[in-house]
Amino acid sequence: MRFFRFFVHIRHPGDLLLATAIPAVTIHALSPRSDYSKGFISSRYRLRTFVPEIDEVLAAPVDESGSKAAVHSAVCNSVAKQISSVFEKRSKGQSVAAFYLTDEPFDVLLPNHVTRRNWVNRMKYLKERFFNIDAIKSFHSRVRLSWVVSSKLKKEMQSKEFDDKIADIMVTVLQTLKMGRGEVLVERGLLSTEALKAIEPKLKQLTPNQLRLLDITAEDFILPTEPVCLSIRTRIEGEKVFCDIFVLDVALFASKQFMYLSERLKEKGKRLKDEYDIVGPDLAEELIASDDYPFDAPKQLFINMMLSCQIKPTLGDFFVSQFNVIVAP
Predict the structure, then answer these.
(1) Highest taxon of the source (predicted)?
(2) β-bridge partners, 243
(3) Looking at the domain assignment, is residue 64 inside a domain?
(4) Which of the ends of the chain has fewer CB neighbours closer than 10 A, N or C?
């Protein structure tokens, strides 16, 4: 499929350096999730997603320049309160300041009860709405989009493979940016020049520990579904028309190094009620980090990505036109 022509599935940072030495025609498509090694363990469903309180975030002011610094601070404070209820801050771990890369896109708001069914249905609804017959007829009158082109795009977007790959693209972009190789993404057509320019100023200011937080893998996503589709829209630039898909996903840095107290006891063949006099949901959900976890508290990443595709006058390949990572707390 066109969509995957430029992408390389990266498990280690060195993989990209090897890939960039290979001619573009030899770069392989991303491996389907079903082809992952037997060691692949997803953290979706397993770990809780810490979602900031909507009222606290919306109450934060945005200054005249459009800076989201105050909003980011509100997100961090809200997420930190939730984490502190299930995780005791470690004195031996390193402290690292939260950060975000750019002011737009900036979205961290999710319902308090995110389920796979809710978001799969939402994705289906958005796609069907985008491609319904009435909309196509109306769209025809404005940009003369052919049914053949729209049908090809519809088939691609509604495939299970399309939904499964979005998280892999996020991982590829993050790990490449961590290595300071953003220009490689632009050269391969995966990231727009404008997107790189928007994130470079703050990216260059990150400390080594902050950059380390970008080193996530496909196993670190914790949202209990595939990436969330927030919107599907068309955008007109002169004679060209684009389809923009805004997606959000959430990851926990080094998620494999976390487990709940109830899981730890189960591993040892023990039960909560045998170890503690009082047992409740709060105790069962207490989060434990492995001894070698490098930071003082869990670090959660909200990843915003605008995936775009030219649909007129010709049908092009998908690329990332906007990208942001919002780290909290």
Answers:
(1) Eukaryota
(2) 234, 309
(3) yes
(4) N
Give CA–CA dist 252/32, Å, rounded: 22
* Angstrom distance (rounded) from CA 105 to CA 244: 12
**Mean pLDDT confidence for 164-175:** 90
Most confident of 98-107, 112-121, 152-161: 98-107
Whether residue 274 is contained in a domain is answered as: no
Residue 261 included in any domain: no
321, HSE (Cβ side, Cα atoms, 13 Å): 14
Q: Whose CA is closest to 322, among 195, 175, 213, 181?
A: 195
Whole-prediction pTM = 0.78
Confidence of residue 266 (pLDDT cuts 50, 70, 90): low
Asked if residue 133 has pLDDT above 70, the reply is no
If you write DSSP's letter for every residue of 239-306 in order, what string do you get? TEEEEEEEEEEEEETTGGGEEEHHHHHHHTT--HHHH-SS--HHHHT-EEE-TT--BSS--EEEEEEE
Find out whether the peptide bond into 313 is cis, omega within 30 degrees of 0: yes
Question: Phi then psi for 288, rounded to 5 degrees?
Answer: -120, 135
According to the 3-state scheme, what is the secondary structure of 16-54? HHHHHCCCHHHCCCCCCHHHCCCCCCCCCCCCCCCCCCH
Q: Residue count of the chain, please give it.
A: 329
Sheet strand arrangement including 300-312 = 99-100, 319-328, 300-312, 240-252, 228-237
pLDDT digits (tens, 9 = 90+) for 275-313: 444 444 444 478 888 888 999 999 999 999 999 988 888
Distance, in Å, from the CA atom of 308 to the CA atom of 310, rounded to the nearest integer, reads 7
Per the domain annotation, does 266 fall within a domain? Answer: no
Number of domains comprising the chain: 1
Give the residue numbers spanning the domain of 56.
2-254+293-328
Distance from C-alpha of 6 to C-alpha of 11, rounded to nearest angstrom: 16
